[in-house]
Design brief:
Layout (H helix, E strand, L loop, with lengths): L2 E6 L11 H4 L4 H15 L2 E6 L3 H11 L5 E5 L8 H10 L3 E5 L21 E4 L4 H14 L4
Parallel strand pairs: 1-2, 1-3, 3-4, 4-5
Helix pairs in contact: 3-4
């Protein structure tokens, strides 16, 4: 059974209350519940984690190697600033999907640059909470675990 790590970065713990017009009304707990139900339906192992701290996110990525088969990563604002996260992704040799709730390319210019994109297998953005299950499908497809 494939195993996925769904990793969330800074401020995502505030979903539902923080700019719902941009990020949607769902809380991170709602999204986790949706992902867990989808993982069960698909027969997939799932770990779900969130941190506001860059170093903790690096630690989660390091721990994923040898434990999970792929990572779905919503790094939030760190997407646009973190060489450390880029290096961590490159070092774990796992497929990583970059994920964003909003369409970052339709927002401020500083959000158009991603340090993670060069080391990710793909990017899903702009589909709100549904992006998480889209990313799960993409990860499973990439792993050959889904027809």
């Amino acid at each position: 059974m494939p195993s996925l790590l769904v990793l969330n970065g800074p401020n995502l713990n505030l979903l539902g209350a923080r700019q719902p017009e941009v990020y949607g009304p769902e809380t991170l707990g709602d999204i986790e519940g949706m992902c867990r139900a989808y993982a069960e339906e698909k027969g997939v192992g799932l770990e779900f984690a969130q941190s506001n701290h860059e170093g903790a996110l690096v630690e989660h990525l390091h721990a994923a190697k040898g434990t999970h088969d792929a990572v779905i990563f919503n790094a939030g604002a760190y997407t646009h600033t973190s060489v450390a996260l880029m290096d961590a992704i490159a070092s774990i040799e796992l497929p990583v999907i970059e994920l964003h709730l909003s369409n970052v390319h339709a927002r401020e210019a500083f959000r158009h640059k991603s340090y993670l994109a060069p080391v990710a297998i793909g990017i899903i953005c702009g589909f709100g909470a549904r992006g998480y299950t889209l990313a799960m499908d993409a990860a499973l497809n990439h792993l050959g675990a889904e027809a």
